[in-house]
Amino acid sequence: LITTPSPSARKPQPPEAMARGAKISAFALVTWTACASAFRLGLGARPSPRVRRVCSLSTLAMSTVTVEVSRGLEGLGIEVNSDNLVVSETDQPDLNVGDVVISVDGEPLAGRKLSAVLDQESSTYTFEVSRDPAKCLPALERALLQLGTGLEQPSVDELEDEQRARIHGVVAALEDMAAAAAPANPLEAMQGFWKLILGAGPGTTAGCSGMAAGSDCSLVAQWQAFSDKEPSCQVVEIIADPLLGRNNVAALKGSAEVGAAPPPDVEDRPSGVAGLTETYTRTEVGGSLSTSDAKVLSRRCTYLSAQARICRPAGKGAVVGDFSIYWKTTADAAQLEIARLADAKVGNAAEEEEDIPLWERRLRDDNYDDEALSEIP
Fold it and tell me: What is the pLDDT of residue 360?
């Protein structure tokens, strides 16, 4: 489904054989508290975190800063994860999403949780926080992965308001710090396989192919592959289609150009470090040609590290707040996951599959594997 240009690569297994016996696990939507080991400081309900520009570029030049934090009626109004990284705040104007707390009132945390050091009788605290990108970027990347863990699809649009706002805040913090991680050669940094882990907007809900925009359909997973040979850009999407009773596979092939980043759509957002134009001239669904109409996508790419990048739509029709986060993977890992998800049962068909005894499913899958290996139809 995604081809790799390496001449020494093994002959890929036919998609039909890869899909035999494919199974999909039923993922449960995991709350932030569970997946990120986050905790709230202070008692009582509090309003949803606001999304704002989290750091100015001038503050990034300071390795550590000291901020005053006050306890209000709703508590401190901040939330940190297992790295003591601030993932949301509502009532602390001097504290930024992305700050890593390293000491409280002069006492170093030294690996302890922030809650273990706070004196619950105090109403004000002096936090020493790190704003060094070398320290904060890796912690923010881990927070991002934790946010995506357990979600059954990459789109965040249907999440609760508070969780969605938290994700947007972490994404904004990553972009603000990413200038220090800009690659010297964006084209070279783009090469390889990437998996979409989180996103917002039509590009994630409908997918590049647009197939997930159908009735009750949803984008389960998406991969991109870039190379210096044609097709220089490929996309594979797994689409859950309840009407078919199984997942379907869409593949797009075309070319990509990396150049200067287009200007930001809003003044308060960074422009990114590279512009990416993807032109897809072939779309296949289920292995058959669906359309050869050209589809052009323009994006601003902000590289967080060698492993992660954030893309935002650019040009006419771009919506402020839409984003796609891609994580670097390998050809083998992508092919294995595509094979696992392709043709997996969904909806009523998945429930019927669960009713089949395990021994019968294993016997059937073994027969499928034997048939595929022997190439007997």
Answer: 63
For position 267, what pLDDT does the model report?
A: 53
Question: From CA 84, how far away is CA 221, in angstroms rounded?
Answer: 30
pLDDT digit string, tens, across residues 136-172? 888 888 888 887 777 888 999 988 888 888 888 888 8
The separation between CA 197 and the C-alpha centre of its own chain, rounded to angstroms, equals: 3
SS3 letters across 101-164: EEEECCEECCCCCHHHHCCCCCCEEEEEEECCHHHHHHHHHHHHHHHHCCCCCCECCCCCHHHH
Give φ, ψ of 296 to 5 degrees. Answer: -115, 130
Contacts of 364 (CB under 8 A, 6+ apart): 21
Q: Token match 């090469």: residue?
A: 191
Name the residue type at position 61: A
Q: What is the DSSP letter of 213?
A: G
Backbone angles phi, psi at 24, to 5 degrees: -125, 130
